[in-house]
Amino acid sequence: MTKIYDAIVLGAGVAGSAAAKLLADRGWHTALVDRHRFPRHKVCGEFLSPESQGTLARLGLLEEVKSLSPSAITRTSMHMRGGGVVSLALPGKALGVSRFLLDEKLHRAAEAAGAEAREGVTVTAVTRQGEHYAVLVRAGDRTEELLARSVIGAWGGAGLSYGERGEEGDTSNDAPKKRKGAPKSSSVGVKMHYRIRSPKAAEAMTEAAARPDAVELYFFRGGYLGLNAVEDGKVNVAALLDRADIPAKHRTVAAMLEEAIRRHPALEARMAGLLPIMGSAAAVSPFRVGLRPVPWNGMPLIGDAICRIPPLCGDGMSMALRSAELCGKFADRYLRGELTVEQWEREYGAAVASEFAGPLRWGRVAHSLLASPVLSYALPLIARLAPGAASGMVRATRLRNPAIVES
C-alpha cells in the first residue's frame, strides 16, 4: 500500500525546515525533501535580525539557534562610496550565525519533531491527482513517487515552479553556475568566511574593526558588500555584484570578492587583517531581487520562493521564518478540514500581502537609493541633519514582528 503523507515540504532551508517542524509538532506525517545534503554553505548575510527571534521562539527554535553560539550584533554601519559613514543602533540584539550550522540545526530539529527528512533527492515533477499531490523524486538512478495531501514549495529564490528543480540556481561551488536564459546584465551573489590572520594582526586592527558587534555594509561601483561576525570568531563576507562589471578573469568567489574589496579603501583596510577560509565559498547567479510577493503557484510558497528581498535589508531570514509560520498554520487548518484549498490560497495570500508588501516595497526603495552614486555622497549629511530618517527607513524594511530585547 502506497504511503500518503499529510504534507511534503520541497526544500530544507530556513523556511522549509521551520514549516516541516511546525507541521510535525502538530502531529502531521510530514516529509522534508532537499536535493542537497547537509551541512552546506549558502549565499546569505548570515544575519538573524531582532525581529526574527520572536518567530524562532514561537516555533520552538530559538534555544536551538542559541546553542550554536552565534555572535551578538547590536548596530549597523554603512560605508558609502564617497567615504562617509552612517551608523545606526539596531532595535534589539541580532544574531550572526552561519547557514552551514543554522540550516543543519533546523533540519535536525524538524527530524526530531517527527518529520521524515530526505537529503540528496531531486524532485522532477509535481502533479495533482484528485485529492492528492504526486511528487516524483530521483535519488541516483532510483525514481520514486510520493503522495501527499499537501505540498509546500520552499526551494529558494531560483524562480522555479512545480518540479523544475534543475541544476541551476543556488550552488555551493567556488565558481558560480550561470542559469540558462539569464539576462546578459545580471547580479551575482557571492559569500565566503574569513578569519583573523594572527593575534598580532588582531592587535593591529582599529577599534571599530576589532568590535564584532556590527554588521558593516560597503557600497562601491558595481555593487555592495556586507560583513559581520558569526560563530567561532569567523567573519561572513557576502556581496551582491553586477556580473557585467566584474572582469571575466575573475572566475572564482575568492577572486570576485578580492575585486570588490579593492573598490572601497575603507573595506580594503578592514579586510587586510583577515584571511579567507577555504571551502566556505558559495555563489548564486543570477541573483534577482523580487518585484512583488507571489505566495502561491499551484501550491503555497514560502521563503525566497515567494520573493527575494534586497539583501542589504537584512531581514530575509526573518521573512522566511514568518512565511513558514503563516503557511504552516494555514496548512494545519487545511489538513484538519477547516479550510478548502481555495480558502487556504486566498487567506494565505492576503496574510503575505499584509505583512510583506510594505517591507519589500521599502526594501527596493532602499536598494535603489543606496546604490545611487549621488545619494551615496549625500546620505551621511542627511543622516546627521535628520537622524530619524535613516532609522525610519531601516524600520520600514522590517516585519512588524516584536523583537526580543535582552538586557
From TrEMBL:
InterPro entries per the UniProt record, alphabetical: FAD-bd (IPR002938), FAD/NAD-bd_sf (IPR036188), Geranylgeranyl_reductase (IPR050407)
Domain FAD-binding: 6-164
Molecular function as annotated in GO: FAD binding; monooxygenase activity
UniProtKB keywords: Monooxygenase, Oxidoreductase
Lineage: superkingdom: Bacteria
Residue ranges of the region described as Disordered: 163-188
Pfam families: FAD_binding_3 (PF01494)
PANTHER family linked: CONDITIONED MEDIUM FACTOR RECEPTOR 1, GERANYLGERANYL DIPHOSPHATE REDUCTASE
Protein name: FAD-dependent monooxygenase
Organism whose genome encodes this protein: Paenibacillus soyae
